Amino acid sequence: MSERPASQQGVDPGPERPGPVEIRRLSYPDLPQVTAIERRVFPTPWSLAMFVLELSKQSGICLAAVSGERLLGYLICSRYDTVWHVMNVAVDAGQQRRGLASALLGELYQQVGDPHARFTLEVRPSNHVAIHLYERDGFRAAGMRRRYYQDNGEDALVMWRTPATLEGSFDDVPNPRPV
Ligand SMILES: CC(C)(COP(=O)(O)OP(=O)(O)OC[C@H]1O[C@@H](n2cnc3c(N)ncnc32)[C@H](O)[C@@H]1OP(=O)(O)O)[C@@H](O)C(=O)NCCC(=O)NCCS
Predict the structure, then answer these.
(1) 129 lines ligand 1 (CB under 6 A)
(2) How far apart are CA 28 and CA 111, in angstroms?
(3) How high is the pLDDT of residue 19?
(4) How many CB atoms lie within 10 A of CB 153?
(5) Which of 81, 116, 126, 138 is the most buried (most CB within 10 A)?
(6) Which of 137, 110, 30, 128 is nearest to 73 (CA)?
(7) Sign, Cα dihedral of 160, 93, 32, 23
(8) How much is the pLDDT for 18?
(9) Can you give the pLDDT at residue 2?
């Protein structure tokens, strides 16, 4: 991982963005913009209360990608015991494919700052863009949660990024299952 600030990690400013992109901590005043993006990019958006709950957790890491006052994307990660659970990553429509999600994830790994850290997440098997992003970052599919998504009954793919998955094995992944 680069030692440069995430705001300089190869993020293309893009034509819609006047200023440089900064990755900083997500905070309560960001939430109106968060819920607006959430509604634009997800079929079943999180409620405001869900974001408030995540921001209230002392052990979590919540990040914002901003250009000036404008929120472009965000990442919510909770810590459960020794495992970091990436709960939500989103980049606004029109701001995607410019490296923002990669920069948010890169900043997460840097802030966790532990080479032994294990990260996990759930993703819809139909979300090829997100799966591609996570695989590029060292996450590997290690199981399914049946009928996880309530809107359409879709299964969830469970992915892990651990010291082992980064080396090509599942040795430190709990109960890995072929998918
Ligand atoms: C998934 C998402 C967060 C990616 O954000 P992003 O800022 O566009 O991602 P990046 O620009 O960092 O892209 C990183 C990689 O993701 C993949 N990717 C991103 N957009 C892609 C697209 N439209 N088609 C194919 N791959 C894509 C590529 O591997 C890309 O790397 P590359 O550009 O070098 O090929 C964004 O598309 C999004 O918000 N989608 C809606 C919400 C969502 O599905 N969140 C994830 C829930 S698990």
Answers:
(1) yes
(2) 20
(3) 73
(4) 9
(5) 138
(6) 30
(7) positive
(8) 47
(9) 33
The pLDDT of residue 13 is 44
Instruction: Look at strands 70-80 and 83-91 and give their pairing.
Output: antiparallel
- For 21, phi then psi, to 5°, come to -90, 135
Whether the Cβ atoms of residue 74 and residue 62 lie closer than 8 Å to each other: yes
Tokens describing residue 83: 């495992």
* From 5-14, 26-35, 131-140, the region with the lowest mean pLDDT: 5-14
Can you tell me the distance from the alpha carbon of 141 to that of 135, in angstroms, rounded to the nearest whole number?
Answer: 8
Pocket of ligand 1 contains residue 99 by CB under 6 Å: yes
Average pLDDT over the chain, rounded to whole? Answer: 91
Distance CA 89, CA 131 (A): 12
Ligand 1 midpoint to CA 78 (Å): 21
Indicate if ligand 1 lies below 6 Å from the C-beta of 11: no
Which pTM does this prediction carry? 0.91
Among candidates 51, 56, 94, which has minimal Cα distance to 76?
Answer: 51
Tokens of 106: 């890169």
Domain annotation for the chain: domains and CATH numbers: 1-113 (3.40.630.30), 116-179 (3.40.630.30)
